[in-house]
């Protein structure tokens, strides 16, 4: 599965834009709402006693809207288009033969998924299960940006499913990705704190080296990820399977208090 490591940032400045009558307009997070759209469908094989060849599709994504008496919904069109493009990407990766477009509709995505399942079931003597879980959420929205979290799991046969967590921070006004890594005042200090959190998560002694515990890297080789999520009171750093250690170690989603991660802005 392709990985799309886009970075996040935090900024405390307010964005302004202009109505058609030139009246100044400022986004306020109090006026923003999030609506979740869900897909939860399965193939007929899932009703069989042994469920062999069962295909399951679970997916969701948010749309951000403005409240108020005269909401300017066009303000957030770029943001919602960007969120939807992130939502569609796992379908593009999982079903490359369908040449799915970034703006493909929900019916088109569902049809492509179950079409692939039907074709592959006919090709394989051993009926395999299919699963695609793709949940996109907006856990934090400020006056400037939306923090987006995407959790994915795909399975089309094999020893185990592919899972990953992806974090994005999108500009509310443009939908473009913002980059927090370069905004950190002291990346070395953050790295040292994350290393302690990582060792605590796997019940390691702080004096023990990662490599001696079975990680792919040593303490000295540990680096900050660019897969970062900024929330109201915390900052999360996600390391997906095989980035630091074998698959059996799982995904490491390391969280620090926001006060411990100082930004230049």
UniProtKB/TrEMBL annotation:
Residues 188-259 form the DUF3298 domain. Signal peptide: none annotated. It comes from the Bacteria. InterPro entries: DUF3298, PdaC/RsiV-like_sf. This is DUF3298 domain-containing protein.
């Amino acid at each position: 599965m392709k990985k799309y490591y886009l970075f996040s940032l935090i900024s405390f400045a307010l964005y302004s834009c202009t109505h058609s009558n030139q009246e100044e307009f400022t986004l306020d997070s109090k006026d923003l709402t999030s609506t979740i759209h869900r897909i939860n469908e399965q193939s007929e094989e899932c009703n069989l006693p042994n469920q062999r060849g069962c295909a399951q599709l679970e997916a969701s994504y948010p749309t951000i809207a403005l409240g108020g008496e005269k909401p300017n919904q066009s303000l957030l069109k770029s943001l919602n288009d960007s969120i939807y493009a992130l939502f569609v990407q796992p379908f593009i990766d999982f079903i490359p033969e369908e040449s799915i477009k970034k703006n493909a509709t929900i019916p088109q995505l569902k049809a492509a998924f179950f079409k692939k399942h039907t074709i592959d079931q006919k090709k394989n003597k051993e009926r395999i299960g299919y699963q695609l879980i793709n949940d996109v959420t907006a856990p934090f929205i400020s006056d400037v940006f939306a923090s987006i979290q995407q959790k994915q799991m795909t399975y089309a046969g094999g020893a185990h499913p592919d899972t990953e967590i992806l974090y994005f921070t999108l500009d509310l006004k443009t939908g473009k990705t913002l980059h927090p890594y370069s905004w950190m005042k002291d990346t070395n200090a953050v790295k040292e704190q994350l290393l302690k959190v990582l060792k605590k998560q796997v019940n390691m002694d702080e004096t023990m080296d990662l490599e001696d515990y079975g990680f792919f890297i040593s303490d000295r080789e540990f680096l900050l990820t660019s897969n970062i999520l900024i929330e109201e009171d915390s900052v999360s750093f996600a390391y997906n399977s095989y980035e630091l250690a074998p698959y059996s170690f799982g995904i490491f989603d390391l969280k620090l208090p926001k006060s411990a991660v100082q930004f230049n802005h």
